[in-house]
Amino acid sequence: MLVDSHCHLDRVDLTQFNGQLTAALDYAESCGVTRFLCIATDRDNTAAVRKIARDDPRVYCSVGVHPLSDQLATDGLYDFLINQSAADEVVAIGETGLDGFYAKDTIAAQQASFEQHFAAAHDCQLPLIIHTREARAETLQLLLSKPRENAGVLHCFTEDWPMAKAAIDAGYYVSISGIVTFRQADNVREMAKKIPLDRLLVETDAPYLAPVPHRGKPCLPSHTRTTAEFLAELRNESIEQLAAQTTANFYSLFSKASRHEATGNTM
How many structural domains is the chain composed of? Predict the structure, then answer.
């Protein structure tokens, strides 16, 4: 079984599934993708993301404000994150982080928001979901300030191996998306080969970044399988081995989800 460790189910194109998210997740399950982590990107979509998770026991969710959101104001943010994270279906804080590629002019606001997320994740002992692009030093400075076991994940990671290793050493996992299949992503492939299997996650970031051979089409949670198969071949591992370990990694990192599975609770 595989886990899509990062997807935006509130934005997935459901045209081929007659508008039914359940049908899209059923199809993903037929491809061996059986659990999904639906990511919040701002305060406005939190309710929708939480409802998706409550309505389908295969789905968990996060709460957070994306660094490219126009809702980076930190007024009440810490309290919002703490209060929302108490819900059964919320297993992580984020997506947060720093983006110097698309929004270098808002780095100061991103940093303030990131610090609030970091504090909330630390205080409620939930993992942090991190977006980072062209902000290596600034991101690592915060991550390395308070290392802890199962601290979080660098999602859709496309930076270099030294940054990945530093984050892993500080207690973070690294998640690989369909970008690893892109023709010009040699750097991502080289980095992905080096990630220890017990620190690796797989994701789609659906509806974005559809892997080859689905480029140019909306990305779906079922495409987790495509990326996982590519990764397994790249790393000279069997798909069974990679699927089993990345699923175990998911539950190790997102231990709140693991507790629900163990007790048989549904949301």
Answer: 1
pLDDT at 68: 94
Tens digits of per-residue pLDDT, 100-118? 988 989 999 999 999 999 9
Structural domain span for residue 173: 2-261
Contacts of 125 (CB under 8 A, 6+ apart): none
Closest CA to 61 of 93, 37, 85: 37
Whole-prediction pTM: 0.95
Beta bridge partners of 90: 61
Do the domain assignments include residue 267? Answer: no
Rounded to the nearest integer, the mean pLDDT of the chain is 95
> How many H helices and E strands in the chain?
10, 8
User: Could you tell me the strand order of the sheet in which 90-99 lies?
Assistant: 2-7, 33-38, 59-63, 90-99, 128-133, 152-154, 172-176, 200-202
